[in-house]
Amino acid sequence: MELSKEYSLEELAKFHGHLGPNIVLGYMMGKYACENLTNDPFSLKATVYCPKKTPESCIVDGVQLGSGCTLGKGNIEIIEDSNIHCEFRTESASLTLTPIAMPPLPERDDDYELTIERYAEDLYMMDPASLFAITRSE
């Protein structure tokens, strides 16, 4: 079954509870994997390497939405690692995406939540090739 769904920033925030940069990064990683490996959420497997604490672990929610790999289906695995990256696999190929060249987080201010939302919106509009080191294996 091939499924393709674009999620808006509002939908990401609704699923996750708020809009932040890590859910956006995870979503973009998962979406890239679907676009470049397969849109079949049953043929794709994901391994997310990240700290098991917020805000970094929020990347997992984004990967689930972007890739269709879910905890319920059991085709996503989370491995604790301080070096954030994601591996996506099908039977014939794999992709590894590692965040690079991230714009610096904004300074804390009186309306930091809004500032972080705007930062996340900016990430959502960026080209994945400028956000991630991408390695493909056949």
TrEMBL record:
Q: Which residues form the Formylmethanofuran dehydrogenase subunit E domain?
A: 15-80
Q: Extract the InterPro entries matched here.
A: FmdEsu_dom (IPR003814), tRNA_methyltr_O (IPR053194)
Database matches in Pfam families: FmdE
What is the organism of origin for this protein?
Methanogenium organophilum
In terms of PANTHER family, this protein maps to: DEHYDROGENASE (PTHR39418:SF1), DEHYDROGENASE-RELATED (PTHR39418)
Q: Which protein is depicted?
A: Formylmethanofuran dehydrogenase subunit E family protein
